[in-house]
Amino acid sequence: MNDKLKTVQDDLAFLRGIAEGGAERGGFGVAGGALYGSAGLLYGIQTLVYFAQEKGVVSLGGLGNLILAWLPTLIFLVLMAIVIVVERRRPKGGVAHRAINAAFAGAGLANLALIIVFAVAAARNHDFRYWLFHPAVVFVMQGAVWYAVFALRKRAWMLVVSLGWLASGVALGLLVDRADLYLLIASVGLFGFMMIPGFFLMRQAQRAAA
For the CA atoms of 109, 110, 112, 117, what is the dihedral angle to 10 degrees? Predict the structure, then answer.
Protein backbone atom coordinates (compact mmCIF):
# COMPACT_ATOMS: atom_id res chain seq x y z
CA MET A 1 0.00 0.00 0.00
CA ASN A 2 2.82 2.40 0.89
CA ASP A 3 4.53 1.70 -2.43
CA LYS A 4 1.32 2.41 -4.33
CA LEU A 5 0.78 5.61 -2.38
CA LYS A 6 4.33 6.75 -3.13
CA THR A 7 3.82 6.00 -6.83
CA VAL A 8 0.66 8.10 -6.88
CA GLN A 9 2.45 10.92 -5.07
CA ASP A 10 5.33 10.78 -7.55
CA ASP A 11 2.89 10.91 -10.46
CA LEU A 12 1.10 13.89 -8.96
CA ALA A 13 4.41 15.65 -8.36
CA PHE A 14 5.38 15.04 -11.99
CA LEU A 15 2.09 16.45 -13.27
CA ARG A 16 2.30 19.40 -10.91
CA GLY A 17 5.81 20.12 -12.12
CA ILE A 18 4.60 20.18 -15.70
CA ALA A 19 1.63 22.37 -14.88
CA GLU A 20 3.52 24.87 -12.75
CA GLY A 21 6.92 24.74 -14.38
CA GLY A 22 8.74 26.49 -11.58
CA ALA A 23 10.00 30.01 -11.77
CA GLU A 24 11.26 29.87 -15.34
CA ARG A 25 7.92 29.98 -17.08
CA GLY A 26 9.10 29.30 -20.58
CA GLY A 27 11.39 26.47 -19.61
CA PHE A 28 14.45 27.99 -21.29
CA GLY A 29 16.12 29.87 -18.47
CA VAL A 30 18.04 33.09 -18.99
CA ALA A 31 20.90 31.57 -20.97
CA GLY A 32 18.69 29.33 -23.10
CA GLY A 33 16.31 32.15 -23.95
CA ALA A 34 19.22 34.42 -24.83
CA LEU A 35 20.70 31.75 -27.10
CA TYR A 36 17.40 31.10 -28.86
CA GLY A 37 16.74 34.80 -29.33
CA SER A 38 20.28 35.42 -30.55
CA ALA A 39 19.93 32.64 -33.13
CA GLY A 40 16.79 34.30 -34.46
CA LEU A 41 18.55 37.66 -34.60
CA LEU A 42 21.68 36.34 -36.32
CA TYR A 43 19.96 34.22 -38.94
CA GLY A 44 17.19 36.78 -39.37
CA ILE A 45 19.78 39.41 -40.29
CA GLN A 46 21.48 36.92 -42.59
CA THR A 47 18.33 36.12 -44.56
CA LEU A 48 17.27 39.77 -44.61
CA VAL A 49 20.60 40.80 -46.15
CA TYR A 50 20.24 38.00 -48.70
CA PHE A 51 16.75 39.31 -49.46
CA ALA A 52 18.11 42.83 -49.95
CA GLN A 53 20.76 41.44 -52.27
CA GLU A 54 18.15 39.48 -54.22
CA LYS A 55 16.19 42.71 -54.73
CA GLY A 56 19.33 44.55 -55.87
CA VAL A 57 19.52 46.85 -52.85
CA VAL A 58 23.01 45.66 -51.85
CA SER A 59 25.78 43.70 -53.54
CA LEU A 60 28.19 41.82 -51.29
CA GLY A 61 30.43 40.14 -53.82
CA GLY A 62 32.11 36.77 -53.40
CA LEU A 63 33.94 37.48 -50.15
CA GLY A 64 30.98 39.27 -48.62
CA ASN A 65 28.66 36.38 -49.37
CA LEU A 66 31.16 33.92 -47.91
CA ILE A 67 31.40 35.93 -44.70
CA LEU A 68 27.62 36.29 -44.49
CA ALA A 69 27.19 32.55 -45.01
CA TRP A 70 29.49 31.53 -42.15
CA LEU A 71 29.67 34.41 -39.66
CA PRO A 72 26.22 33.90 -38.04
CA THR A 73 26.94 30.22 -37.45
CA LEU A 74 30.39 30.91 -36.00
CA ILE A 75 28.94 33.51 -33.62
CA PHE A 76 26.13 31.15 -32.67
CA LEU A 77 28.56 28.31 -31.90
CA VAL A 78 30.55 30.60 -29.59
CA LEU A 79 27.36 31.66 -27.81
CA MET A 80 26.21 28.05 -27.54
CA ALA A 81 29.52 27.03 -25.95
CA ILE A 82 29.12 29.82 -23.40
CA VAL A 83 25.55 28.74 -22.62
CA ILE A 84 26.63 25.12 -22.15
CA VAL A 85 29.26 26.19 -19.63
CA VAL A 86 26.83 28.48 -17.80
CA GLU A 87 24.03 25.90 -17.68
CA ARG A 88 26.32 23.20 -16.28
CA ARG A 89 26.96 25.37 -13.25
CA ARG A 90 23.28 25.94 -12.58
CA PRO A 91 21.02 23.56 -10.64
CA LYS A 92 18.70 21.43 -12.73
CA GLY A 93 15.26 22.92 -13.35
CA GLY A 94 11.89 21.33 -12.81
CA VAL A 95 10.20 18.65 -14.85
CA ALA A 96 8.73 21.02 -17.43
CA HIS A 97 12.06 22.82 -17.80
CA ARG A 98 13.85 19.56 -18.56
CA ALA A 99 11.07 18.35 -20.86
CA ILE A 100 11.15 21.53 -22.94
CA ASN A 101 14.93 21.55 -23.15
CA ALA A 102 14.87 17.90 -24.22
CA ALA A 103 12.34 18.68 -26.96
CA PHE A 104 14.49 21.46 -28.41
CA ALA A 105 17.63 19.34 -28.07
CA GLY A 106 15.91 16.54 -29.97
CA ALA A 107 14.90 18.96 -32.71
CA GLY A 108 18.51 20.11 -32.90
CA LEU A 109 19.76 16.56 -33.39
CA ALA A 110 17.14 15.97 -36.07
CA ASN A 111 18.29 19.16 -37.78
CA LEU A 112 21.87 17.86 -37.93
CA ALA A 113 20.65 14.65 -39.57
CA LEU A 114 18.53 16.58 -42.05
CA ILE A 115 21.51 18.71 -43.06
CA ILE A 116 23.19 15.55 -44.33
CA VAL A 117 20.04 14.32 -46.07
CA PHE A 118 19.30 17.52 -47.98
CA ALA A 119 22.94 18.38 -48.69
CA VAL A 120 23.55 14.96 -50.24
CA ALA A 121 20.31 15.17 -52.24
CA ALA A 122 21.25 18.61 -53.59
CA ALA A 123 24.76 17.45 -54.52
CA ARG A 124 23.67 14.23 -56.18
CA ASN A 125 20.94 15.87 -58.22
CA HIS A 126 22.91 19.06 -58.91
CA ASP A 127 19.90 21.05 -57.82
CA PHE A 128 20.18 23.65 -55.04
CA ARG A 129 16.42 23.60 -54.57
CA TYR A 130 16.73 20.34 -52.65
CA TRP A 131 18.71 22.23 -50.02
CA LEU A 132 16.06 24.95 -49.84
CA PHE A 133 13.61 22.41 -48.46
CA HIS A 134 15.83 21.99 -45.40
CA PRO A 135 14.90 25.33 -43.76
CA ALA A 136 11.25 24.59 -44.52
CA VAL A 137 11.44 21.31 -42.62
CA VAL A 138 13.35 22.96 -39.76
CA PHE A 139 10.63 25.61 -39.46
CA VAL A 140 7.97 22.90 -39.32
CA MET A 141 9.93 21.03 -36.63
CA GLN A 142 10.17 24.21 -34.60
CA GLY A 143 6.41 24.57 -34.90
CA ALA A 144 5.93 21.04 -33.61
CA VAL A 145 8.24 21.66 -30.65
CA TRP A 146 6.49 24.91 -29.79
CA TYR A 147 3.16 23.10 -29.87
CA ALA A 148 4.58 20.70 -27.28
CA VAL A 149 5.66 23.72 -25.22
CA PHE A 150 2.14 25.13 -25.53
CA ALA A 151 0.68 21.80 -24.42
CA LEU A 152 2.85 21.95 -21.29
CA ARG A 153 2.42 25.65 -20.51
CA LYS A 154 -1.07 26.40 -21.85
CA ARG A 155 -0.17 29.95 -22.89
CA ALA A 156 -1.90 31.29 -25.98
CA TRP A 157 1.13 33.17 -27.30
CA MET A 158 3.07 29.91 -27.48
CA LEU A 159 0.37 28.47 -29.72
CA VAL A 160 0.70 31.57 -31.92
CA VAL A 161 4.45 30.96 -32.17
CA SER A 162 3.83 27.32 -33.07
CA LEU A 163 1.33 28.18 -35.79
CA GLY A 164 3.65 30.90 -37.08
CA TRP A 165 6.51 28.44 -37.47
CA LEU A 166 4.24 25.91 -39.19
CA ALA A 167 2.76 28.45 -41.60
CA SER A 168 6.21 29.85 -42.41
CA GLY A 169 7.58 26.36 -43.03
CA VAL A 170 4.77 25.50 -45.43
CA ALA A 171 5.23 28.82 -47.22
CA LEU A 172 8.97 28.19 -47.62
CA GLY A 173 8.30 24.77 -49.08
CA LEU A 174 5.93 26.26 -51.63
CA LEU A 175 8.23 29.14 -52.59
CA VAL A 176 11.57 27.48 -53.33
CA ASP A 177 11.36 28.92 -56.85
CA ARG A 178 10.79 32.47 -55.57
CA ALA A 179 14.03 33.43 -53.86
CA ASP A 180 12.87 36.91 -52.84
CA LEU A 181 9.67 35.79 -51.13
CA TYR A 182 11.42 32.75 -49.68
CA LEU A 183 14.07 34.91 -48.00
CA LEU A 184 11.54 37.49 -46.83
CA ILE A 185 9.35 34.87 -45.17
CA ALA A 186 12.40 33.25 -43.60
CA SER A 187 13.45 36.63 -42.16
CA VAL A 188 10.00 37.36 -40.76
CA GLY A 189 9.81 33.88 -39.26
CA LEU A 190 13.22 34.08 -37.63
CA PHE A 191 12.62 37.53 -36.17
CA GLY A 192 9.01 36.95 -35.17
CA PHE A 193 9.03 33.36 -33.97
CA MET A 194 12.59 32.90 -32.76
CA MET A 195 14.20 36.19 -31.78
CA ILE A 196 11.20 37.77 -30.04
CA PRO A 197 10.07 34.64 -28.10
CA GLY A 198 13.65 33.83 -27.12
CA PHE A 199 14.40 37.26 -25.67
CA PHE A 200 10.95 37.40 -24.08
CA LEU A 201 11.58 34.11 -22.27
CA MET A 202 15.02 35.33 -21.26
CA ARG A 203 13.42 38.41 -19.73
CA GLN A 204 10.82 36.30 -17.94
CA ALA A 205 13.52 34.11 -16.44
CA GLN A 206 15.47 37.19 -15.32
CA ARG A 207 12.41 38.57 -13.55
CA ALA A 208 11.72 35.23 -11.88
CA ALA A 209 15.31 35.01 -10.65
CA ALA A 210 15.34 38.59 -9.32
Answer: 160
